Amino acid sequence: MTTKTRRGPYLKGVARRAEILRIALDAYQTSGPQGPSLKSIAAAVGLTEAGVLHYFDSKDDLLVAVLEARDAEYADAYDLTALDGVWALLAHTTRTPGLVKLFVDMTAASANPDHPAHAFMQKRAGGIVELVERILGPGHEWQARVLMAAAEGLQIQWLRDPSTDIPADLKRLEAALEPADD
Prior knowledge:
By secondary structure, the protein is mostly helical. It has 9 helices and no strands.
């Protein structure tokens, strides 16, 4: 008796998905706050919109994958073990309004536990708490939550008013949240 096993993805399909993701990330990094359309991403990879979505479960899955790819790229590019690296990353985000808008949109959508962004944002939040505790020391979970909430809110303000200085405001907040020496 033979058992039927499900085949994994073909290498060509994996490579094509990675290409779509790379092009979509680049499109979001270079776009204005409106972000690129799925149609423009599809055209850049030589597919239809349906062809692009063949490689992802849905458009929202593609968008979450773009944010995952962004986070992986940033983790490689910035020293996130030190505050200077975090501030440099935050300053960089103000040069990528399309990605900021995508992040804000997916943050709001993640409130729905059934949305593809929900698990991603929960995992990301846990990673940020760990990062802040590595930098500030153990026992700073509430400061991490406050800084994360402020960063998310400041990104919304920055989309409305690009003169908002996200890193400077967060630096001031971080200094205010430092525990007083006993």
